[in-house]
Amino acid sequence: MTENVSAAAVSADGTVIAFTAWGEGEPLIIIDGATAYPAINPLNEQIGGMLSDEFRTYAYDRRGRGQSTDTAPYAVAREIEDLAALIEVAGAPATVFGWSSGAVLALDAAAAGLPIRRLALFEPPFVVDDSRPPLPADYVERLDAAVADGRPGDAAELFITAAAGMPPEFVDGIRQSEFWPIMEAVAPTIAYDGRIMGTTMSGAPLPGDRWAAITVPTLVMHGTGTFPFIVTGTEALADLLPTATLLPVKGEQHSAPADVLAAVLRDFDR
Questions:
Q1: Measured distance CA(246)–CA(244) in Å, rounded
Q2: Fold of the CATH domain 3-129+202-268
Q3: Are 236 and 211 in contact (CB under 8 A)?
Q4: How far apart are the first and last CA of the chain?
Q5: CA-CA to 165 of 20 to 30 Å: which in 72, 126, 154, 190?
Q6: Could you tell me the pLDDT band of residue 237, with boundaries at 50, 70 and 90?
Q7: Is the peptide bond before 188 cis (omega within 30 degrees of 0)?
Q8: pTM of the predicted structure, to 2 decimals
């Protein structure tokens, strides 16, 4: 298995995007969701290892996380450019697999015309009904204010409670864990994912035109044991995209084991 530990791509605005790659074959690029990056998400490496005979799998630190740099001001278009730079390194066209809000970034990138062969999306966290509270209308503004005021922990707490839907008492335990400094370090990027999600967590139907330009095969997955709002959200996306196939993944929640996902991605290639 071939591995590149300290490689990087350079985005259009000069931001350095660090990545690790495993295997040989068709390029497969993994996009993490909010707060995650390969150093703290072992599933990326595990998937890359399991697919190393068929894919060259790339997992990267989204801007502002891990070993990647960042450049102000932020715009979703800059993250699309980051992915474009990585595809240029990996070779086009690429298969793109996105987790959670990373799946929404993958959708936006495909709609923007990046050379993507196919999309695999796991549980984009859309809220399209009243099965859970919507994001506060001022969610992004509150995140920005907390970071600007030097309160990254408050931004992380807002994400955990308002976006992830965890009870406030859950935060107390996380604040005492070894994971909390990591959350605070990536807190400035949480608003990035808030901007990517846009109005898609408001309880309203998904925008009919945002991804209308997507023509590539798209696999939309949700775990059968996940939150009800994610089931309805992924079903809504599958209904919206003419090229989409909906795949319920038996027993899984807002994640899935590497062997399950690797098998799905291998089958999707056929």
A1: 7
A2: Rossmann fold (3.40.50)
A3: no
A4: 22
A5: 72
A6: very high
A7: no
A8: 0.96
pLDDT (mean) for 52-81: 97
Q: Give the pLDDT confidence of 1-58 residue by residue, as tens digits.
A: 455 456 899 999 999 999 999 999 999 999 999 999 998 999 999 999 999 999 999 9
57-72 residues labelled b (16+ CB within 10 A) or e (exposed):
bbbbbbbbbbbbebee
For residue 106, give the amino acid letter: A
Assess whether the previous peptide bond of 93 is cis (omega < 30° from 0): yes
Let me know: does 203 contact 129? Beta carbons within 8 Å: yes
214 near 188, Cβ under 8 Å?
no
Could you give the count of Cα atoms lying within 13 Å of 50 in the half-sphere of its Cβ?
16
Rounded to an integer, what distance in angstroms lies between the CA atom of residue 117 and that of residue 132? 34
Q: Which long-range contacts (CB under 8 A, 24 or more apart) does 265-268 make?
A: 265/28, 265/47, 265/51, 265/55, 265/95, 265/97, 265/120, 266/51, 266/54, 268/95, 268/118, 268/120, 268/217, 268/219
Tens of pLDDT, residues 171-200: 989 999 999 999 999 999 999 999 999 999
- Which one-letter amino acid corresponds to residue 233? G
Q: Which residue has the tokens 């390969």?
A: 38
Which DSSP state fits 67? T
Domains of the chain by residue range? 3-129+202-268, 139-197
At 99, the pLDDT band (50, 70, 90 cuts) reads: very high
